[in-house]
Protein backbone atom coordinates (compact mmCIF):
# COMPACT_ATOMS: atom_id res chain seq x y z
CA UNK A 1 0.00 0.00 0.00
CA UNK A 2 1.73 3.17 -1.17
CA UNK A 3 -0.11 5.56 1.12
CA UNK A 4 -2.53 5.45 3.98
CA UNK A 5 -5.93 7.06 3.73
CA UNK A 6 -5.83 10.38 5.52
CA UNK A 7 -6.80 10.04 9.15
CA UNK A 8 -6.85 6.21 9.07
CA UNK A 9 -4.67 4.40 11.61
CA UNK A 10 -2.58 1.42 10.52
CA UNK A 11 -4.12 -1.93 11.40
CA UNK A 12 -2.20 -3.86 14.05
CA UNK A 13 -1.47 -7.53 13.49
CA UNK A 14 -2.55 -9.71 16.42
CA UNK A 15 -0.15 -12.63 16.95
CA UNK A 16 -1.75 -16.10 17.05
CA UNK A 17 -2.30 -17.69 20.42
CA UNK A 18 0.49 -20.06 21.49
CA UNK A 19 -0.63 -23.61 22.17
CA UNK A 20 -0.80 -24.66 25.79
CA UNK A 21 2.11 -26.92 26.77
CA UNK A 22 2.14 -29.05 29.91
CA UNK A 23 5.09 -28.25 32.14
CA UNK A 24 7.83 -30.82 31.77
CA UNK A 25 9.28 -32.58 34.78
CA UNK A 26 12.17 -30.62 36.28
CA UNK A 27 15.50 -31.53 34.73
CA UNK A 28 18.27 -32.86 36.94
CA UNK A 29 20.92 -30.20 37.72
CA UNK A 30 24.38 -31.11 36.49
CA UNK A 31 25.76 -30.65 40.02
CA UNK A 32 23.68 -33.62 41.14
CA UNK A 33 25.46 -35.98 38.75
CA UNK A 34 28.70 -37.78 39.59
CA UNK A 35 31.58 -36.59 37.35
CA UNK A 36 32.68 -40.22 36.92
CA UNK A 37 29.46 -42.15 36.30
CA UNK A 38 27.39 -39.14 35.11
CA UNK A 39 24.51 -40.55 37.17
CA UNK A 40 22.62 -38.84 39.97
CA UNK A 41 24.65 -39.35 43.12
CA UNK A 42 23.24 -41.61 45.80
CA UNK A 43 25.84 -40.89 48.46
CA UNK A 44 27.80 -37.72 47.54
CA UNK A 45 31.22 -37.39 49.16
CA UNK A 46 33.93 -34.77 48.72
CA UNK A 47 37.68 -35.12 48.30
CA UNK A 48 40.20 -32.70 49.82
CA UNK A 49 40.30 -30.94 46.41
CA UNK A 50 36.67 -29.89 46.90
CA UNK A 51 35.30 -32.05 44.08
CA UNK A 52 32.28 -34.21 44.90
CA UNK A 53 31.57 -37.71 43.61
CA UNK A 54 29.26 -40.61 44.29
CA UNK A 55 30.87 -42.76 46.97
CA UNK A 56 30.78 -46.01 44.96
CA UNK A 57 32.40 -44.43 41.89
CA UNK A 58 35.23 -42.61 43.67
CA UNK A 59 35.93 -45.62 45.89
CA UNK A 60 36.48 -47.78 42.80
CA UNK A 61 38.80 -45.08 41.44
CA UNK A 62 40.86 -45.08 44.64
CA UNK A 63 40.83 -48.88 44.98
CA UNK A 64 42.34 -49.18 41.50
CA UNK A 65 45.45 -47.35 42.76
CA UNK A 66 44.80 -43.78 41.63
CA UNK A 67 45.89 -41.00 43.96
CA UNK A 68 44.67 -38.01 41.99
CA UNK A 69 41.34 -36.21 41.76
CA UNK A 70 39.58 -37.38 38.55
CA UNK A 71 38.10 -33.93 37.87
CA UNK A 72 41.03 -31.65 38.73
CA UNK A 73 43.89 -34.14 38.16
CA UNK A 74 45.51 -32.75 41.31
CA UNK A 75 47.39 -35.13 43.64
CA UNK A 76 45.48 -36.09 46.78
CA UNK A 77 47.07 -35.26 50.12
CA UNK A 78 44.50 -37.58 51.69
CA UNK A 79 41.99 -40.13 50.45
CA UNK A 80 39.47 -39.37 53.20
CA UNK A 81 35.92 -39.08 51.85
CA UNK A 82 33.76 -36.45 53.57
CA UNK A 83 29.96 -36.87 53.18
CA UNK A 84 28.37 -33.86 51.45
CA UNK A 85 25.19 -33.77 53.52
CA UNK A 86 23.86 -30.54 52.02
CA UNK A 87 24.10 -31.84 48.47
CA UNK A 88 22.54 -35.13 49.51
CA UNK A 89 19.61 -33.25 51.03
CA UNK A 90 19.17 -31.18 47.87
CA UNK A 91 19.20 -34.33 45.73
CA UNK A 92 16.51 -35.88 47.93
CA UNK A 93 14.37 -32.73 47.71
CA UNK A 94 14.75 -32.72 43.94
CA UNK A 95 13.78 -36.39 43.78
CA UNK A 96 10.57 -35.59 45.64
CA UNK A 97 9.49 -33.31 42.76
CA UNK A 98 9.90 -36.04 40.15
CA UNK A 99 7.14 -38.38 39.00
CA UNK A 100 6.93 -41.65 40.94
CA UNK A 101 9.27 -44.35 39.70
CA UNK A 102 7.77 -47.37 37.96
CA UNK A 103 7.12 -50.56 39.87
CA UNK A 104 9.59 -53.46 39.49
CA UNK A 105 7.17 -55.20 37.11
CA UNK A 106 6.84 -52.05 34.97
CA UNK A 107 10.61 -51.54 34.92
CA UNK A 108 11.17 -55.14 33.82
CA UNK A 109 8.60 -54.69 31.04
CA UNK A 110 10.46 -51.58 29.90
CA UNK A 111 13.74 -53.51 29.93
CA UNK A 112 12.26 -56.36 27.88
CA UNK A 113 10.87 -53.86 25.35
CA UNK A 114 14.11 -51.86 25.02
CA UNK A 115 15.85 -53.98 22.36
CA UNK A 116 18.19 -51.70 20.40
CA UNK A 117 17.58 -48.75 22.73
CA UNK A 118 20.40 -48.65 25.32
CA UNK A 119 19.08 -45.48 26.94
CA UNK A 120 15.69 -47.05 27.65
CA UNK A 121 17.32 -50.23 28.99
CA UNK A 122 19.63 -48.25 31.26
CA UNK A 123 16.70 -46.24 32.60
CA UNK A 124 14.85 -49.44 33.48
CA UNK A 125 17.92 -50.98 35.15
CA UNK A 126 18.57 -47.80 37.13
CA UNK A 127 14.99 -47.82 38.33
CA UNK A 128 15.29 -51.39 39.54
CA UNK A 129 18.70 -50.80 41.15
CA UNK A 130 17.36 -47.83 43.09
CA UNK A 131 14.80 -50.11 44.71
CA UNK A 132 17.40 -52.58 46.01
CA UNK A 133 19.59 -49.91 47.64
CA UNK A 134 20.14 -50.83 51.31
CA UNK A 135 18.20 -47.84 52.57
CA UNK A 136 15.16 -48.74 50.48
CA UNK A 137 14.51 -52.13 52.01
CA UNK A 138 12.66 -53.35 48.91
CA UNK A 139 14.94 -56.13 47.72
CA UNK A 140 12.16 -58.69 48.15
CA UNK A 141 9.83 -56.90 45.71
CA UNK A 142 12.50 -56.71 43.03
CA UNK A 143 13.53 -60.34 43.56
CA UNK A 144 9.91 -61.44 43.33
CA UNK A 145 9.38 -59.52 40.09
CA UNK A 146 12.54 -60.92 38.47
CA UNK A 147 11.89 -64.47 39.70
CA UNK A 148 8.39 -64.43 38.25
CA UNK A 149 9.85 -64.91 34.75
CA UNK A 150 13.51 -65.94 34.97
CA UNK A 151 13.60 -67.18 31.36
CA UNK A 152 13.10 -63.66 29.99
CA UNK A 153 14.37 -61.32 32.71
CA UNK A 154 17.75 -63.01 33.32
CA UNK A 155 18.82 -62.94 29.62
CA UNK A 156 17.72 -59.30 29.38
CA UNK A 157 19.79 -58.34 32.42
CA UNK A 158 22.78 -60.37 31.19
CA UNK A 159 22.60 -58.77 27.75
CA UNK A 160 22.58 -55.32 29.33
CA UNK A 161 25.42 -56.19 31.73
CA UNK A 162 27.61 -57.30 28.80
CA UNK A 163 26.62 -54.40 26.55
CA UNK A 164 27.98 -50.90 26.06
CA UNK A 165 26.52 -49.31 29.18
CA UNK A 166 28.66 -47.51 31.72
CA UNK A 167 30.46 -49.45 34.44
CA UNK A 168 28.06 -48.43 37.20
CA UNK A 169 25.04 -49.39 35.10
CA UNK A 170 26.51 -52.83 34.35
CA UNK A 171 27.22 -53.36 38.05
CA UNK A 172 23.61 -52.43 38.82
CA UNK A 173 22.38 -55.10 36.40
CA UNK A 174 24.53 -57.72 38.14
CA UNK A 175 23.29 -56.54 41.55
CA UNK A 176 19.74 -57.16 40.36
CA UNK A 177 20.73 -60.65 39.19
CA UNK A 178 22.18 -61.28 42.66
CA UNK A 179 18.72 -60.89 44.20
CA UNK A 180 17.54 -64.04 42.38
CA UNK A 181 20.84 -65.96 42.14
CA UNK A 182 19.74 -68.70 44.59
CA UNK A 183 16.66 -69.34 42.41
CA UNK A 184 18.86 -69.61 39.32
CA UNK A 185 20.82 -72.44 40.97
CA UNK A 186 17.90 -74.78 40.37
CA UNK A 187 18.65 -74.59 36.65
CA UNK A 188 21.98 -76.33 37.33
CA UNK A 189 20.82 -79.06 39.67
CA UNK A 190 17.33 -79.76 38.36
CA UNK A 191 15.95 -83.03 37.03
CA UNK A 192 17.72 -82.74 33.69
CA UNK A 193 14.73 -81.60 31.64
CA UNK A 194 16.03 -78.04 31.22
CA UNK A 195 17.35 -77.06 27.87
CA UNK A 196 21.06 -76.50 27.36
CA UNK A 197 20.43 -72.80 26.79
CA UNK A 198 18.92 -72.40 30.25
CA UNK A 199 21.96 -74.04 31.85
CA UNK A 200 24.32 -71.75 29.93
CA UNK A 201 22.23 -68.74 30.94
CA UNK A 202 22.33 -69.80 34.59
CA UNK A 203 26.10 -70.34 34.59
CA UNK A 204 26.72 -66.93 32.99
CA UNK A 205 24.48 -65.24 35.55
CA UNK A 206 26.12 -66.96 38.53
CA UNK A 207 29.62 -66.20 37.21
CA UNK A 208 28.71 -62.54 36.76
CA UNK A 209 27.41 -62.30 40.33
CA UNK A 210 30.37 -64.09 41.93
CA UNK A 211 33.02 -62.11 40.02
CA UNK A 212 31.44 -58.63 40.32
CA UNK A 213 32.93 -56.08 42.68
CA UNK A 214 29.64 -54.30 43.34
CA UNK A 215 27.81 -57.31 44.81
CA UNK A 216 27.84 -57.62 48.59
CA UNK A 217 29.75 -60.44 50.25
CA UNK A 218 26.56 -61.50 51.99
CA UNK A 219 24.85 -62.03 48.63
CA UNK A 220 27.82 -64.04 47.33
CA UNK A 221 27.89 -66.23 50.43
CA UNK A 222 24.16 -66.88 50.15
CA UNK A 223 24.62 -67.95 46.55
CA UNK A 224 27.51 -70.30 47.34
CA UNK A 225 25.50 -71.80 50.21
CA UNK A 226 22.72 -72.59 47.73
CA UNK A 227 25.23 -74.08 45.27
CA UNK A 228 26.85 -76.52 47.70
CA UNK A 229 23.56 -77.58 49.29
CA UNK A 230 22.80 -80.00 46.45
CA UNK A 231 24.61 -82.78 44.60
CA UNK A 232 28.25 -81.64 44.47
CA UNK A 233 29.25 -84.22 41.88
CA UNK A 234 26.57 -83.13 39.46
CA UNK A 235 27.36 -79.48 40.15
CA UNK A 236 31.06 -79.96 39.29
CA UNK A 237 30.22 -81.86 36.10
CA UNK A 238 27.80 -79.16 34.97
CA UNK A 239 30.19 -76.30 35.69
CA UNK A 240 33.14 -77.97 33.95
CA UNK A 241 30.98 -78.68 30.91
CA UNK A 242 30.19 -74.95 30.73
CA UNK A 243 33.83 -74.11 30.04
CA UNK A 244 35.67 -71.01 31.29
CA UNK A 245 32.51 -69.38 32.63
CA UNK A 246 31.66 -72.40 34.74
CA UNK A 247 35.22 -72.53 36.06
CA UNK A 248 34.76 -69.01 37.43
CA UNK A 249 31.90 -70.33 39.60
CA UNK A 250 33.86 -73.41 40.64
CA UNK A 251 36.91 -71.36 41.67
CA UNK A 252 34.69 -69.04 43.73
CA UNK A 253 33.30 -72.06 45.60
CA UNK A 254 36.75 -73.50 46.35
CA UNK A 255 38.11 -70.19 47.64
CA UNK A 256 35.04 -69.19 49.64
CA UNK A 257 34.88 -69.73 53.43
CA UNK A 258 31.29 -70.94 53.13
CA UNK A 259 31.75 -74.64 52.20
CA UNK A 260 33.33 -76.82 54.88
CA UNK A 261 36.54 -78.76 54.32
CA UNK A 262 34.69 -81.97 53.44
CA UNK A 263 32.70 -80.27 50.67
CA UNK A 264 35.82 -78.69 49.17
CA UNK A 265 37.69 -82.01 49.38
CA UNK A 266 34.83 -83.76 47.59
CA UNK A 267 35.12 -81.21 44.76
CA UNK A 268 38.93 -81.42 44.57
CA UNK A 269 38.83 -85.23 44.50
CA UNK A 270 36.55 -85.45 41.46
CA UNK A 271 38.32 -87.54 38.84
CA UNK A 272 37.30 -85.24 35.98
CA UNK A 273 38.39 -82.01 37.69
CA UNK A 274 42.02 -81.67 36.55
CA UNK A 275 41.63 -83.25 33.08
CA UNK A 276 38.79 -80.85 32.29
CA UNK A 277 40.66 -77.87 33.75
CA UNK A 278 43.70 -78.70 31.61
CA UNK A 279 41.45 -79.04 28.56
CA UNK A 280 39.83 -75.67 29.23
CA UNK A 281 43.22 -74.05 29.82
CA UNK A 282 44.52 -75.39 26.50
CA UNK A 283 41.41 -74.50 24.49
CA UNK A 284 40.56 -71.09 25.96
CA UNK A 285 43.73 -69.94 27.78
CA UNK A 286 41.42 -69.38 30.75
CA UNK A 287 43.00 -67.61 33.76
CA UNK A 288 40.09 -68.96 35.81
CA UNK A 289 41.24 -72.52 35.04
CA UNK A 290 44.67 -71.73 36.51
CA UNK A 291 43.11 -70.20 39.62
CA UNK A 292 40.79 -73.18 40.01
CA UNK A 293 43.73 -75.61 39.82
CA UNK A 294 45.55 -73.55 42.45
CA UNK A 295 42.50 -73.57 44.71
CA UNK A 296 42.13 -77.36 44.40
CA UNK A 297 45.82 -77.89 45.21
CA UNK A 298 45.45 -75.59 48.21
CA UNK A 299 42.49 -77.66 49.42
CA UNK A 300 43.87 -81.16 48.79
CA UNK A 301 47.65 -80.78 48.85
CA UNK A 302 49.86 -83.65 47.60
CA UNK A 303 47.09 -85.82 46.07
CA UNK A 304 45.90 -82.83 44.03
CA UNK A 305 49.44 -82.09 42.84
CA UNK A 306 49.80 -85.65 41.57
CA UNK A 307 46.37 -85.54 39.89
CA UNK A 308 47.26 -82.24 38.23
CA UNK A 309 50.53 -83.61 36.84
CA UNK A 310 48.92 -86.83 35.58
CA UNK A 311 46.30 -84.76 33.78
CA UNK A 312 49.03 -83.09 31.68
CA UNK A 313 49.05 -79.73 33.41
CA UNK A 314 52.80 -79.06 33.11
CA UNK A 315 52.97 -78.29 29.34
CA UNK A 316 49.68 -76.37 29.54
CA UNK A 317 51.01 -74.26 32.42
CA UNK A 318 54.26 -73.63 30.52
CA UNK A 319 52.22 -72.19 27.64
CA UNK A 320 50.29 -70.02 30.10
CA UNK A 321 53.52 -68.73 31.64
CA UNK A 322 54.73 -67.65 28.21
CA UNK A 323 51.53 -66.08 26.88
CA UNK A 324 49.02 -65.32 29.66
CA UNK A 325 48.50 -61.90 31.27
CA UNK A 326 50.84 -61.11 34.16
CA UNK A 327 48.54 -62.16 37.02
CA UNK A 328 47.65 -65.46 35.33
CA UNK A 329 51.31 -66.10 34.44
CA UNK A 330 52.31 -65.64 38.09
CA UNK A 331 49.62 -68.11 39.17
CA UNK A 332 50.88 -70.59 36.56
CA UNK A 333 54.44 -70.22 37.87
CA UNK A 334 53.25 -70.93 41.41
CA UNK A 335 51.49 -74.07 40.16
CA UNK A 336 54.67 -75.21 38.43
CA UNK A 337 56.41 -74.84 41.79
CA UNK A 338 53.79 -77.15 43.29
CA UNK A 339 54.31 -79.64 40.46
CA UNK A 340 58.10 -79.57 40.93
CA UNK A 341 57.71 -80.54 44.59
CA UNK A 342 56.69 -84.12 43.68
CA UNK A 343 58.67 -86.68 41.73
CA UNK A 344 56.02 -87.06 39.03
CA UNK A 345 55.95 -83.31 38.52
CA UNK A 346 59.74 -83.05 38.33
CA UNK A 347 59.78 -85.80 35.72
CA UNK A 348 57.03 -84.10 33.72
CA UNK A 349 58.96 -80.83 33.77
CA UNK A 350 62.11 -82.63 32.58
CA UNK A 351 60.13 -84.31 29.79
CA UNK A 352 59.27 -80.83 28.43
CA UNK A 353 62.55 -79.28 29.56
CA UNK A 354 63.15 -77.01 26.57
CA UNK A 355 59.60 -75.57 26.59
CA UNK A 356 59.48 -75.11 30.37
CA UNK A 357 62.94 -73.52 30.61
CA UNK A 358 62.23 -71.16 27.70
CA UNK A 359 58.85 -70.14 29.10
CA UNK A 360 60.10 -69.56 32.65
CA UNK A 361 63.26 -67.69 31.63
CA UNK A 362 61.40 -65.68 29.02
CA UNK A 363 58.88 -64.44 31.58
CA UNK A 364 61.11 -64.19 34.66
CA UNK A 365 61.77 -60.43 34.36
CA UNK A 366 58.29 -59.59 33.06
CA UNK A 367 56.37 -60.48 36.22
CA UNK A 368 56.22 -59.10 39.74
CA UNK A 369 58.41 -60.09 42.65
CA UNK A 370 56.20 -63.04 43.58
CA UNK A 371 56.41 -64.32 39.99
CA UNK A 372 60.19 -63.89 39.83
CA UNK A 373 60.69 -65.81 43.05
CA UNK A 374 58.37 -68.56 41.80
CA UNK A 375 60.32 -68.76 38.54
CA UNK A 376 63.59 -69.22 40.42
CA UNK A 377 61.99 -71.86 42.67
CA UNK A 378 60.72 -73.87 39.67
CA UNK A 379 64.15 -73.90 38.08
CA UNK A 380 65.97 -74.72 41.32
CA UNK A 381 63.62 -77.58 42.22
CA UNK A 382 64.00 -79.12 38.76
CA UNK A 383 67.73 -78.39 38.22
CA UNK A 384 69.33 -78.57 41.66
CA UNK A 385 67.12 -80.09 44.37
CA UNK A 386 67.91 -83.76 45.02
CA UNK A 387 70.50 -83.78 42.29
CA UNK A 388 68.13 -82.23 39.77
CA UNK A 389 67.40 -83.34 36.23
CA UNK A 390 70.19 -83.22 33.64
CA UNK A 391 67.75 -82.37 30.84
CA UNK A 392 66.55 -79.28 32.72
CA UNK A 393 70.11 -78.10 33.41
CA UNK A 394 70.96 -78.47 29.74
CA UNK A 395 67.80 -76.61 28.70
CA UNK A 396 68.46 -73.83 31.21
CA UNK A 397 72.08 -73.45 30.07
CA UNK A 398 70.86 -73.11 26.47
CA UNK A 399 68.19 -70.52 27.33
CA UNK A 400 69.07 -67.02 26.04
CA UNK A 401 70.47 -64.62 28.68
CA UNK A 402 69.91 -67.11 31.51
CA UNK A 403 72.91 -65.89 33.50
CA UNK A 404 72.02 -62.23 33.15
CA UNK A 405 68.41 -62.70 34.18
CA UNK A 406 69.37 -64.72 37.24
CA UNK A 407 71.78 -61.95 38.21
CA UNK A 408 69.02 -59.36 37.83
CA UNK A 409 66.84 -61.34 40.23
CA UNK A 410 69.69 -61.68 42.74
CA UNK A 411 70.34 -57.94 42.70
CA UNK A 412 66.66 -57.12 43.10
CA UNK A 413 64.52 -57.10 46.20
CA UNK A 414 64.30 -60.87 46.52
CA UNK A 415 64.26 -63.01 49.64
CA UNK A 416 67.47 -64.60 50.97
CA UNK A 417 66.19 -68.05 50.00
CA UNK A 418 65.57 -66.90 46.42
CA UNK A 419 69.01 -65.28 46.26
CA UNK A 420 70.60 -68.54 47.44
CA UNK A 421 68.66 -70.60 44.87
CA UNK A 422 69.58 -68.17 42.08
CA UNK A 423 73.25 -68.45 43.03
CA UNK A 424 73.13 -72.25 42.88
CA UNK A 425 71.40 -72.04 39.50
CA UNK A 426 74.13 -69.73 38.23
CA UNK A 427 76.82 -72.24 39.20
CA UNK A 428 74.86 -75.09 37.60
CA UNK A 429 74.43 -73.12 34.37
CA UNK A 430 78.11 -72.16 34.13
CA UNK A 431 79.22 -75.73 34.81
CA UNK A 432 76.85 -77.04 32.15
CA UNK A 433 78.04 -74.45 29.66
CA UNK A 434 81.69 -75.33 30.30
CA UNK A 435 80.96 -79.06 30.10
CA UNK A 436 79.33 -78.64 26.70
CA UNK A 437 81.99 -76.22 25.44
CA UNK A 438 79.51 -73.37 25.03
CA UNK A 439 80.82 -69.87 24.28
CA UNK A 440 81.45 -68.00 27.53
CA UNK A 441 78.68 -65.65 28.51
CA UNK A 442 79.14 -61.89 28.47
CA UNK A 443 78.18 -61.79 32.13
CA UNK A 444 80.62 -62.28 34.99
CA UNK A 445 78.84 -64.23 37.71
CA UNK A 446 81.58 -63.41 40.24
CA UNK A 447 80.61 -59.73 40.24
CA UNK A 448 77.39 -57.84 40.65
CA UNK A 449 77.81 -56.10 37.30
CA UNK A 450 75.09 -56.84 34.76
CA UNK A 451 75.55 -55.71 31.17
CA UNK A 452 72.50 -54.49 29.20
CA UNK A 453 70.58 -57.10 27.25
Characteristics of this structure?
single chain, 453 residues, mainly alpha, 3-stranded antiparallel β-sheet, 24 helices, globular, disordered N terminus, disordered C terminus
Describe the protein in words.
With 453 residues, the protein is an all-alpha fold. Helix content is 60%, strand content 2%. It is built from 24 helices and 3 strands. It has helices spanning 55-63, 85-96, 104-112, 118-131, 139-147, 150-161, 167-178, 181-184, 196-211, 217-228, 232-241, 244-255, 261-268, 273-284, 287-300, 302-310, 313-323, 326-340, 343-351, 353-363, 369-383, 390-398, 402-411, 416-435; strands spanning 44-46, 52-54, 82-83. A 3-stranded antiparallel beta sheet has the order 2-1-3, with helices on both faces. Strand 1 and strand 2 form a beta hairpin. Helix 4 (118-131) crosses helix 7 (167-178), helix 6 packs across helix 9 (196-211) and helix 20 (353-363) runs antiparallel to helix 21 (369-383). The protein is globular, with a radius of gyration of 31 Å. It starts with 43 loop residues before the first strand and ends in an 18-residue tail after the last helix.
| Major sheet summary line | 3 strands, antiparallel
Quaternary structure classification: single chain
- The number of helical elements comes to 24
Our measurement of the CA-to-CA distance between the termini, rounded to an integer number of angstroms, reads 95 Å
Strand content: under 5%
Radius of gyration: 31 Å
Order of helices and strands: EEHEHHHHHHHHHHHHHHHHHHHHHHH
Mean pLDDT: 83
DSSP helix fraction: 55-70%
Q: Give the overall form.
A: globular
Low-confidence spans: 1-5, 14-25, 440-453
Overall number of strands: 3
Strand order of the largest sheet: 2-1-3
Structural class call reads: mainly alpha
